[in-house]
C-alpha cells in the first residue's frame, strides 16, 4: 500500500508542483471555455487527454518511442499557446466539432505524457506497468482538482463579478498566453 501511495502521490505532486506549472496552465487553457453544465464535455476532454498521456508514457517507458527532451520541452508551451489562442477565436461561440477537440486533447496529452515519462523514469523502480498506473492515478486526481478549481473560478467570476462566459474565457486565455509566451521565447530550441 505504501508503494501505491508513493507513486500516486508522486503523480499528484508532479502536476500540482508550482515549479512545474505547465500541466496546470494547460488544463486552465483547456477548461476555461466551460461551465459546470458542460461536465460531459469536460469529462471527455480530460479522459482523452489522460489516455494520450498514458499511451505516450507507456511508449516512452518501454523505449518504443523516443523524442528529444528539448523538443518536448518546446512543444509543451506550444500546446498551451495553441489552446489559449484557440479560445480567443472561439470564446462565446458554440462548439462545432467535438471530435476535433477530442483528437487535439489526445495529441496534446501524448506530448505532455512524453514530458512526464522522463521524470517518471527517474523515480521508477524495477516494475513498470503497475507503478505507471499508480502514477497516472495521481495525475488524474490532480487534473480533477484543477478542473474543480477552474470551474469554481468560472462560477465566481460569472455569477459574482458578472463576467460573461466569453469574457471569462478571454481574460484567462490571455493570462495563459502571458504566462507561456516567455517560456517559448526563452526555449533552447532557438539557440
Secondary structure layout plus pairing:
Elements: H1 2-16, H2 22-31, H3 39-61, H4 69-90, H5 98-123, H6 129-159, H7 165-185
Strand content: under 5%
Low-confidence stretches: none
What does the largest sheet look like? none
SSE arrangement, N to C: HHHHHHH
- Morphology: globular
Task: Estimate nothing, just give the exact number of structural domains.
Answer: 1
Number of helices: 7
What helical percentage do the residues reach?
Answer: over 70%
The first-to-last residue Cα distance is 46 Å
Mean pLDDT: 91
The radius of gyration is 17 Å
Q: Could you characterize the architecture of this molecule?
A:
This is HupE / UreJ protein. It holds the Pfam family HupE_UreJ_2. Keywords: Membrane, Transmembrane, Transmembrane helix. By secondary structure, the chain is mainly α. It has one domain. α1 crosses α6 and α2 runs parallel beside α4.
Question: Outline of this structure?
Answer:
With 191 residues, the protein is mainly α.
What are the key terms here?
single chain, 191 residues, mainly alpha, 7 helices, globular
Amino acid at each position: 500500500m505504501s508503494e501505491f501511495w508513493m507513486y500516486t502521490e508522486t503523480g499528484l505532486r508532479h502536476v500540482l508542483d508550482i515549479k512545474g506549472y505547465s500541466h496546470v496552465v494547460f488544463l486552465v487553457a483547456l477548461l476555461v471555455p466551460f461551465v459546470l453544465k458542460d461536465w460531459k464535455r469536460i469529462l471527455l476532454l480530460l479522459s482523452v487527454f489522460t489516455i494520450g498521456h498514458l499511451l505516450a508514457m507507456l511508449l516512452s517507458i518501454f523505449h518504443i518511442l523516443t523524442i528529444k527532451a528539448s523538443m518536448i520541452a518546446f512543444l509543451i508551451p506550444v500546446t498551451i499557446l495553441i489552446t489559449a489562442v484557440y479560445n480567443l477565436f472561439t470564446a462565446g461561440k458554440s462548439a462545432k466539432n467535438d471530435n476535433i477537440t477530442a483528437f487535439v486533447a489526445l495529441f496534446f496529452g501524448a506530448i505532455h505524457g512524453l514530458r512526464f515519462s522522463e521524470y517518471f523514469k527517474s523515480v521508477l523502480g524495477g516494475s513498470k506497468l503497475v507503478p505507471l498506473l499508480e502514477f497516472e492515478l495521481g495525475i488524474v486526481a490532480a487534473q480533477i482538482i484543477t478542473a474543480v478549481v477552474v470551474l469554481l473560478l468560472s462560477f465566481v467570476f460569472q455569477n459574482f463579478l458578472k463576467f460573461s462566459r466569453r469574457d471569462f474565457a478571454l481574460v484567462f486565455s490571455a493570462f495563459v498566453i502571458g504566462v507561456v509566451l516567455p517560456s517559448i521565447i526563452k526555449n533552447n530550441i532557438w539557440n
